[in-house]
Amino acid sequence: MIDISMDMEQYDCPFIDTTADHDVAFAAAHWEFNPVAEELECRMVVEGADRGALDNGLHALQDHGQMHDIDLLAKRENVAHLRTVMGQTDAMATIRRNDGYITGPFYIEDGSEMWHVGFDDEGRANGTLSELEKHNEFEVLEQESTTLPSMNDIVRNAGAAMSLIDGCRDLSDVERKTLETAASEGYFESPRETTLGDLADEFGVSKPAVSKNLRRGQQKMVERVVDALSELDE
User: Fold this and answer.
1) Comparing C-alpha atoms, which of 88, 58, 78 is closest to residue 70?
2) Do 105 and 197 sit in the same domain of this protein?
3) Measured distance CA(85)–CA(71) in Å, rounded
4) Per-residue pLDDT tens for 42-101?
């Protein structure tokens, strides 16, 4: 399998147009293509910089010519969950025509969309990229060939990967920022390149407070790592 990650700017995508004009971002939680109607149905999570940005983005999306249907499933503060139905874009048609398929979630922000697409052979992949250049702007971020054993390994270990992702989600904002800063500034190096005092000064808290945030964050991540290791063993 040829797996391609690309930063795509489609000229006929309602989500891209909306993020170009409004301070919102979309992430696809689920999608399904109807080949008869040539429509893409998605469950989308949309986040605005604030409530006003979210409302403006939703109105713009509703009014877009390529958006066939939109249902607001849930909304809280500056985040909403949507069901959307949109027409097939030129890029989508090109990929489908060349037997390509989606291998990962969409993420749309600032007028561009992160795509993960796959092809069964390199010739198809390269030919599709050439066709896409005619009507779209995009940048290939990564292109790699995945062997059958590697694909099997990815599928079998998806549970372990989700355990690590859940560990990251369990972190509070303070714990995450503290861990990230400590790692980037060399707190975990030997010898240490920064101290608890340095981190405390940077966050404007006491040394016991920053130490507690570090311990809590580390404990959550270590517990998830242990869970992931157990799933790998199984």
Assistant:
1) 58
2) no
3) 9
4) 999 999 999 999 999 999 999 999 999 999 999 999 999 999 999 999 898 999 899 988
